[in-house]
Amino acid sequence: FAKDACNSASAASTCAVCALRKSISFCCNSASLNARIATAINAAFFAPALPAVTVPTGALDWILWFSGAKSFSKIEAYHSTTDNRNHGELEMTALVSAVMDNGVLASASIDYLRPSTAPTHGDDRVRVAGTDGVIEVMKSTVTLINADGEQVLEQLPQRGIFYDFALHLLDGEEALVDAAQTFELTRACLVARDKADLA
User: What is the sign of the dihedral through the CA atoms of 174, 177, 183 and 185?
Assistant: First the structure.
């Protein structure tokens, strides 16, 4: 999969990515949901999540990917050490809200509040709401709700980020993540951390 997930015109009618592209718009600016979002959901979301410290780093990365934005225009953030079970300055909860450069509004939250009896370490979820529908990812299931009803979407093959980077270095293929995105994500995380520390 390079920029398009479909390898042929005949696959387009059954490809979940193409179905998404035709049926959903993204948030307030109504930009079409495209293969980038579906690729990101399938390639990045189902990979093991990186632990978030202070701010929801992985969630901010997803927001940058899914929104199609180039940067975060405005960020507000909060975190709390309340009930951290005597772990010093470890934040147990965090909340970030953002306005993207393309007008998309986004929010992310994290917590370390899962009980020790929980069957998994993380409980990651993604919800993208647009004018033509909503796509949700929860427990490795991708669900689309639009004018045609609710449907569970077929997952695309994973495109591992490290394998992708190696292909970029070896063959010059376009990488899923470029340096500009990495620097913008880092800047956004530092801004969110500083805002939360001052709140």
Answer: positive
pTM more than 0.70: no
Helix (H, G, I), strand (E, B) or coil at 127: strand
| Digit-coded pLDDT (tens) for 120-160 | 777 788 999 988 999 999 888 999 999 999 999 988 777 77
Q: Is the dihedral of CA 71, 1, 154, 122 positive or negative?
A: negative
Runs of H (alpha helix) within 49-160? 57-67
- Please name the residues in contact with 100: beta carbons below 8 A apart, sequence gap of 6 or more: 63, 64, 67, 69, 71, 72, 73, 106
Please choose, from the candidates 164, 165, 139, 144, the residue with its C-alpha nearest in 3D space to the C-alpha of residue 154: 144
Structure tokens at 35: 């293969």
CA dihedral 129, 142, 63, 186 (to 10 degrees): 170
What SS3 state is found at 51? coil
User: In this structure, what token pair is assigned to residue 194?
Assistant: 């500083």
Close Cβ partners of 9 (under 8 Å, ≥ 6 residues apart):
none
Question: Residue 79 in 3-state DSSP?
Answer: strand
pLDDT tens per residue across span 149-191:
999 998 877 777 778 888 888 888 888 888 899 899 999 999 9
Which residues are bridge partners to 158 per DSSP? none
Amino acid (one-letter) located at 128? V
Backbone dihedral angles phi then psi of residue 129, each to the nearest 5 degrees: -110, 135
Q: Among residues 34, 18, 16, which one has the least CA distance to residue 26?
A: 34
